[in-house]
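Cross-check.
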Amino acid sequence: MKVQAPFGFVTGCHAGDKFMVQATLASMRHYCPDVPICLTVDGDFGVSDLEREYDLIVLRVSELSSETMRNLVSGSGRAKLAAMWEGPFEFYVWLDSDAIVWGDFTPQVRTDVDFQIFWSEISIPADATEIPPWLPHFYFDPQKLRRFDSEFEWRGHAYFSSGAFACRRDVIPFDKWLDAELWGRETPGLFGDFYEQPLLNYLVHSMTQRGELKLAVSDLQHISEHHGVGELKQDCADRNWHFPKKVRRPRVAHFCGRKPFLFDRGSYSRPFTIARLEHHRRQHGELGAWLEVLSEERRVLSGKFQRRFQRAACKSYSA
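Predicted model, tokenized:
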């Protein structure tokens, strides 16, 4: 796909999370109405309704120019990388389908750099002497990595969730990414089992160390399990299930971990539910929007019960 704009938002979906990406798109249009949007689609299902509603540029994984690239990214979280190598924007902000724009944070996007991490906390002190157990689990094993990159310094970085970041197109060449994928296949346990997140973190930080990439870190991603929900609750106070007109600290609200469903009492889902309602109000009005959301919740619950039943039946049969 040819470049069509200097800056834009990108999000993506497969068939199972289309109902969630609708909320992501609604939040983008509400807070940043003039920013163009690209939707990467992984799978053979229709998105013409979303294309019309949000004036989207659609990038299908199945239509990528390289067969090697299609095979790498299809059917996994790596589908987001299609925008890096063949997306329509010179510089873009990526959001997973469980994330929403929460206020207009675009003035804080650093288009003067190559990559902007939406996280500002240094995860491991520069003088650390031990490898924390979460690093090989979520990202990579530094000891195994020495075989391939003996000079990489794994301490002193802001390790980030790849559900939200800003990036220049083709900042990590496809061949360089493919080399790292091959390292992982040769060495079990080198990279954590989190799709593109381990490699993205390693390549961003290692390329920065070698002077191949200009990096910025910014506090622009709110994860409730880490930051709590106090700020989000303040923003939502007295808004009656509509987007707040004023957000105290504009950023991305990312609902990784426990997903933002109404039926899950352990998850604070109100901001994401507001975005879901905003999408459905466009076609169904207030009452109809709530009915659509409840219908989506019913389908998710039904799917969960069905999968549990199948697992239980398989265990019973194997016993």
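The radius of gyration is 20 Å. DSSP finds eleven helices and ten strands in the chain. Passed to J.P. for a second look.
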